[in-house]
């Protein structure tokens, strides 16, 4: 797709051109102006109707290939200034944030028609850490530019860290992302906004994204309510199911990105599997999870793939397996999903290229699958296909 950075550059060029015209000397403008008689004699052009403006949560993109759209997803990302991975970046002397990713991985991220990441921090200069919370993450507002570097087109705020510095910082986060032109899901100034899907029109397909969270065992992140800001909770799935149904009524394909599960464990919670069923029955076409900070297995609900956790993508200084999930949809049948194993290590996330390392990640995941399996190239196979492949 044409990434937003290109759009911003075009807008800047247009502004400069307009400024140049406004500053042109009156004599030069007169030299190129047609005579009144010529204008009067010219036929009146038929006005071109202006396209109907899209609502703020609707976006039109140009897919890279006609007839299909490629989505990409990462797990947790952390730009908090005082956190280890950002401190490592600042101390490295690198001036290009892109160097935190291997070039082949970055090309895949930027090349996707739509890339969604988890914004696991607030963007603000205000607020204080929530009392009693062990880990609190806050990034300066300018760090939002790193989403452009990564090629992100949309982020999720449905997590347990976007409210770490109180309501002012939470509201700042919404404003910073809005001003940067980065759509977000799963949080808002009230319940209606937190439930609101982000829609992307790509060719003949409309794709909707919904975000929700049930990650905290000791709940500290504010829940969005009718007249108060917060995140979309899914401890009780009713409000999320409502959001999914609304999205399905307006879109061909609905993605649910959910923060859930037990940190550091590949054992699925009953709540995860129950919610996956409820989301699929409500109309979800793809379910992607985050929060456990490690990769978890996957499964299916009919033709609906469920990726329970994509782990830490660029989050801390640990050496951990992670992945970039790519999903190709064409409006016909189940989406084609491929998990591309990566490794986060030393402040850099890299695409794995060694066949034995790729196999080790996928083979491990195949031991903790709910259903189906991963083929050697990372393709998620349905149970019947997995049996045939075995």
Question: Keywords for this structure?
Answer:
Purple Acid Phosphatase, chain A, domain 2; 390 residues; alpha/beta; single chain
Could you tell me the number of beta strands? 21
Q: How many helices?
A: 12
How much beta, percentage-wise? 15-25%
Fold-level CATH name: Purple Acid Phosphatase, chain A, domain 2
Rounded to an integer in angstroms, the radius of gyration calculated over CA atoms is 23 Å
In the CATH classification, which architecture applies? Answer: 4-Layer Sandwich
Low-confidence stretches: 1-43
* Rounded average pLDDT: 89
CATH superfamily: Metallo-dependent phosphatases
Helix content: 25-40%
Biggest sheet character:
8 strands, mixed
- For this structure, the quaternary state is single chain
List the helices and strands and how they pair.
Blueprint: H1 4-22, H2 26-32, H3 36-41, E1 58-61, E2 69-77, H4 84-92, H5 103-111, E3 114-119, E4 122-123, E5 138-139, H6 145-150, E6 154-156, H7 166-180, E7 184-185, E8 187-188, H8 191-195, E9 198-202, E10 205-213, E11 230-231, H9 238-250, E12 253-259, H10 270-282, E13 286-290, E14 298-301, E15 304-307, E16 312-314, E17 320-329, E18 336-345, E19 348-351, H11 355-366, E20 373-374, E21 380-381, H12 383-389
Parallel strand pairs: 1-9, 2-3, 2-16, 3-6, 4-5, 6-7, 10-12, 12-13, 13-15
Antiparallel strand pairs: 2-17, 8-11, 9-10, 14-15, 17-18, 18-19, 20-21
């Amino acid at each position: 797709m044409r990434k937003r950075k290109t759009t911003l550059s075009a807008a800047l060029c247009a502004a400069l051109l307009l400024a140049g015209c406004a500053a042109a000397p009156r004599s030069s403008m007169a030299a190129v102006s047609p005579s009144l008689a010529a204008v009067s004699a010219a036929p009146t052009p038929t006005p071109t109707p202006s396209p109907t403006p899209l609502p703020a949560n609707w976006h039109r993109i140009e897919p890279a290939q006609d007839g299909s759209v490629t989505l990409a997803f990462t797990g947790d990302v952390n730009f908090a200034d005082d956190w280890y991975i950002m401190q490592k970046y600042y101390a490295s002397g690198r001036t290009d944030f892109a160097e935190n990713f291997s070039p082949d991985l970055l090309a895949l991220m930027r090349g996707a028609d739509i890339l969604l990441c988890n914004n696991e921090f607030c963007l603000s200069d205000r607020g204080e850490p929530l009392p009693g919370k062990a880990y609190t993450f806050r990034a300066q507002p300018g760090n939002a530019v790193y989403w452009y570097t990564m090629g992100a087109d949309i982020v999720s705020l449905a997590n347990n860290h976007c409210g770490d510095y109180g309501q002012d910082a939470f509201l700042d986060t919404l404003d910073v992302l809005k001003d940067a032109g980065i759509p977000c899901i799963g949080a808002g100034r009230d319940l209606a906004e937190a439930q609101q899907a982000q829609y992307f029109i790509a060719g003949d397909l409309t794709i909707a994204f919904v975000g929700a969270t049930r990650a905290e065992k000791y709940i500290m992140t504010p829940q969005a309510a009718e007249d108060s800001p917060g995140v979309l909770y899914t401890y009780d799935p009713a409000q999320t199911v409502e959001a999914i149904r609304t999205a399905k009524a307006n879109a061909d394909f609905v993605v649910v990105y959910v923060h859930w599960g037990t940190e550091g464990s590949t054992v699925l919670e009953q709540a995860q599997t129950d919610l996956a069923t409820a989301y699929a029955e409500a109309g979800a076409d793809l379910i992607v999870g985050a929060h456990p900070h490690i990769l978890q297995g996957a499964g299916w609900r009919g033709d609906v793939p469920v990726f329970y956790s994509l782990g830490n993508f660029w989050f801390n200084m640990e050496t951990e397996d992670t992945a970039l999930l790519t999903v190709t949809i064409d409006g016909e049948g189940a989406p084609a999903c491929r998990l591309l194993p990566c490794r986060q290590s030393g402040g850099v996330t890299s695409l794995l290229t060694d066949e034995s390392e790729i196999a080790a990640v996928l083979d491990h995941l195949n031991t903790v699958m709910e259903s189906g399996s991963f083929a050697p190239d990372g393709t998620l196979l349905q149970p019947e296909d997995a049996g045939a492949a075995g």
